[in-house]
Each structure stands twice: as structure tokens, then as C-alpha cells.
Amino acid sequence: MVKKSNVLVTGSDGQLGSSLHEVSDFYHFNFFFKNKTELDIGDVDSLYDLIIKEEISCVINCAAFTNVDEAEINFKKAELINSISVGILANICSELDVQLIHISTDFVFDGNKNIPYTELDYVNPINNYGRSKLEGENKIINTSLKNSAIIRTSWLYSKFGNNFVNKVIKNIMKNENISVVIDQYGSPTNSLDLAMIILKIIPKIRNRKTEIFNFSNGGYCSRYDFATSIRNILNSNIEISKIHSEHSVPRPKFSALNSDKIKNKFNLEIIDWKVSLKNFFNNTYNGIPK
Predict the structure, then answer these.
(1) How far apart are CA 219 and CA 210, in angstroms?
(2) Would strands 185-186 and 221-222 be described as parallel, antiparallel, or unpaired?
(3) CA torsion through residues 169, 17, 70, 156, sign
(4) Model confidence over 94-120: pLDDT tens digits?
């Protein structure tokens, strides 16, 4: 029998970490799931000890500071988690010859395009969250890592946490009307789809320097269109009003991602966001959340 590789998942109680846990039984790996209280990725000694003791061959780094508004107020905290600690993790993975899969964001872009961003597009974050994530990317790129990848994703949703889909569901369950912005466009991403893609490509990544890949479900939409699709799937009659964004912290107006590179390199099927959203409700709630 072929020995299973040992995979460490950091930030394991977030959306993606939880989704990886949910599908882990279907993949030929031994998983070690660690949340932020169990493992601080900036703690050099703890990382060394765990990776060596458990003979970790791959780290999937889902640990991140994702509160966009708080990052604007407390950049040092965002920078510590999204950049400085990521640099520490990358150096240790390089030294111990461990594969690193790091999750990044569409917020590294300024949103001034009107067609989906590719991996070759100019990065220009417009808020501190995006800046901290880009700094983390650069620390990885500047580290000698083999068979490793940075995966940028966008508009992630799951049954876990306080994401956009769950917020809309809560309003629908309460039969409360909502207002949703019409001037922000992106690519909704089902967290389970991302989790399965990551586990599928881990053994296939062969590079001498870390590569950047985009992954989202196919197509893109406005936040308003996204909310309307959720309402329609649930056969709700709540009213969704169109508003323009008035965030105190700027967000990219257009941050849809082009996932052709990862699709073509690894011969993947990427599901359209509308199809995946229907799958989400069928798989999670058997159609209608209770």
C-alpha cells in the first residue's frame, strides 16, 4: 500500500479549512487540522516541531486576517498574520523541503478592469487588507519553494461562517427585505469546490518556484445578481433593493477572476457559479435551509 502524505491545514476553523475537513475522507492524505489557537503560524518553534514530528510534506495555509474594515484600523495586526507570519511559514517550508499551498485574494487588484483578472495582471491593492495579503504573496515568491502555489480566490462562501450567502439566507428565513449593492462585481466561489481543487492538484504541482493561480467558479456577477439568485433558488418573495456601495473602506468595484491557467494546467472542470450555487443548496440543505 502506498504511504499517505501528511498534510497540515492551518486556520482550520475558517471557511476553507472547514470545507477541507468536510471532504478530507475522499482523498489519500493524512490530515492535521490546526486552528489559530492550536497553532500560530508565526511561532517558529511550534511550526518546526509540528512539521518535523508529524513528517508533514505539504502545508495548506488557510490562516488569514480577513476583516477588511478592521484591517484599515489595525494594519499591524493584519500585516502580522497575512504577511510576517506567512514569511516565517514560507522560510520553514523552504528549509524543510515542504510543499506550501497559500490562499490569497482578489483584493490584491484595484478593480479598475472590466474583464476578469489573470495572474499576469498588475496588482494594486486599494485597502490595507489587500496590501497585507500582497505582502504575504511577495514573501512566498521571494522564498525558494518547490512544487508550491499561491491560489487567489474571491467571494468565498460556505455553510460555515458569516459570508454573503449566509447573510442573505438569514434575511430570507426571517422574511426581511434587503438592500444590496449593484456596483461591485466578482466571481462567487463555493468553498467546497476550492477545497476539492486544492486536494486534486497537490500531487500534480511540479515547479522550482512558487506559481500563482486564480480559482473561482466560472463567470461573474454583481452582488445584487448574486443575492437575487439566492432568493430565486429558495423561492422567496422578499424584496431586494439596489443600492450603490458606500463603504468607509474602499473595495475593488470589479474583481472577477479568470481561472483558465489552473483549469488548463491541471485539466480541471470548473463549474459555473450559478450551477455551483444550486449544488450548494442541494448538498447543504437538500434544497431549502431549515
Answers:
(1) 26
(2) antiparallel
(3) negative
(4) 999 999 999 999 999 999 999 999 999
The pLDDT tens digits for 141-198 are: 999 899 999 999 999 999 998 899 999 999 999 999 999 999 999 999 999 999 999 9
Residue 2 to residues 5, 28, 32, 43, Cα–Cα distance (Å): 9, 9, 19, 32
**Which cell goes with 245?**
456601495
Crossing angle of helices 164-173 and 223-233, rounded to 10°: 50
Are 136 and 100 in contact by the 8 Å Cβ rule? The answer is no
Q: How far is CA 108 from CA 10, 46, 254, in A?
A: 21, 30, 12
The sign of the CA dihedral 73, 78, 80, 81 is positive
- B/e letters for 52-68, b = 16+ CB within 10 Å, e = fewer, are eeeebbbbbbbbbbbeb
**CA–CA distance, 235 with 14 (Å, rounded to integer):** 29
Go through 131-141 and write b for each residue having 16 or more CB atoms within 10 A of its CB, e for each that does not.
bbbbbbbebbe
Q: Which of 253, 276, 254 is nearest to 188 (CA)?
A: 276
Mean pLDDT (the chain, rounded): 95
Given a contact cutoff of 8 angstroms between Cβ atoms, the answer to whether 214 and 264 are in contact is: no
**Which residues, listed in sequence order, are joined to residue 32 by a DSSP beta bridge?**
8
Q: What is the rounded CA–CA span in Å between residue 40 and residue 11? A: 9
- Residue 37 identity: T
